[in-house]
Amino acid sequence: MKSLRFFSAEAFVSNEEFARKSLSGVAHNLFPLLFKASYLLEQGEMIHNLVKNWPLVDFNMGKLLGSTEDYQEDLSHRTCSVCLESCLTGLRDYVLNHPSSPVKRLKLVDLTGMKDVEVQFCDCKKTMGRWARTKLLSKICLELLFYLQQRQCDPRIFEISIDVLIELFVTDWNYEMVVQALLKKCYCPLKICCVALRFDNLSLQKFFYIIKLTDSSLLRKLEIVHNVHLEMEHLEKLLNNIYFPLLTSLTLPARTFNTQRFTATDEQMLNNIGEKLGEMTQLTELSMSFSILTGRLQKLLSPLKTPLKILDVSNCSLNHADMSYLANSFHADHLEALDLSGHNIPDLYPPTFFKFLSHFSSMLRSLTLEDCNIQDSHVNMLILGLRPCQKLQEFKFLGNPLSSQALKYLFTFLCGLPRLKNVEFPVPKDCYPVGITYPIDDVNLCRFDHKKYESIAEELNLILLQANREDIKASTPLFGSYDAAIQETKNELGACLIKSFKETLEKFTTSLNKI
């Protein structure tokens, strides 16, 4: 609900000409209110003018757009291109306009509060994701430097120093611009301060170069994903040479570890990596999916001094020793999110799985068990394991061979979990042709009876409705949950895949010609 103050703010910013002329007489403490009203109405020019004349010490996007007394709705998920571009160009013009007004004192800009989501409600329907925000901020910093070099500027401009906190997303397509901005950071009034870094589609040489340009003492989150070919020796080099005192979250790319070809040197390397992870006293989130960690999980996790809250070891070929360690480790009592996808849990380690869930039950909020060969005969066991997990908010179990009857039985139970909000369930097995094998490959994934599936999905939603659990969202995203980062860079990733396929084909053709 909007307060009378917020209605008044909306009326004020809607008259752009009047607002622009009157802005100099507006009380400083009203700027946040006017900013949120302008953002809601997508008044780009007004947003630009507000930021250009910002009178306060800090500018925090998360707080400005979050729930307030005057308007409770959180707008931080609206990554509207018009609004965000107006913010950043306004920041540039704030610097250039600074000397004319002695009251300006902006010292800190925090852009980290934005949330990239699948559905946007802004009228322009054009978003500015994390990758684009990285590129635009870098571009604006370089434009500022160019302007200052080319023109006679007031000397007071060079006294301005504004820290800009941002979550950088670097790929090969925006690499050069980001590197130039970081190299010239000390000369620019806008100081890029990276608190989170995501790398994708980047060579190792470029990865190591750009990470050395950032201030690792500020970094809280590091994501190295997909097309960055980081292996264990590269990870050891990274951790030996760069210290991350505030790092809370680390994501490693697929195939970072491969215990199938371990030598004595590799074992020592793994021990060293474990020790380095143990020195990160703030680390509580770790993702190592699609590596081969068979029998080595304890070596990596036991040196950690802080219990993990989020752990992703999906498709890591864990064995009994790994599962037993995890169930009995001090992490078990603190885990809030766990992904064990790609492991044959019911058949390989059912006792350990029960122990898992009994340990996790007090804290577990998100559980992912995709492609775990959970069948109809395992549903009772699964229900017994989930029953203590009364804080569970999200349960994903795509890719399991469950019939429609088993799903109905499971959904009836899930209605009793009081905090559950999101369920991702598989296409029922009886919707596929007889004889389909699991895990189902991409070619056959969509070859099911869609009408039958829709009918079953309606029945499952009816179970939720009859239990007064309309608050639970149930869906079947065949190719996984929405990933804003992948969606934003899909063109580059597609081009990279085509290039890789072409190179492989050329090598194959060359080999054939030699024969």
List keywords for this structure.
515 residues; LRR_dom_sf; leucine-rich repeat; Leucine-rich repeat-containing protein 14B; LRRC14/PRAME
Describe this structure in words.
This is Leucine-rich repeat-containing protein 14B. The protein is of the alpha/beta class and 515 residues long. The protein has a domain at 4-128. The chain is 43% helix and 10% strand. The chain contains 21 helices and 13 strands. The chain has helices at 4-14, 16-22, 31-40, 44-52, 61-65, 81-97, 130-150, 175-183, 204-213, 232-241, 264-278, 297-301, 320-328, 345-348, 350-360, 379-386, 404-414, 442-445, 450-466, 484-488, 490-514, and strands at 58-60, 108-110, 162-170, 190-199, 221-224, 249-251, 285-287, 310-312, 337-339, 366-368, 394-396, 422-424, 473-475. The chain has a 13-stranded parallel sheet. Helix 3 (31-40) packs antiparallel against helix 4 (44-52), helix 7 (130-150) packs across helix 8 (175-183) and helix 15 runs parallel beside helix 16. It starts with a helix and ends with a helix.
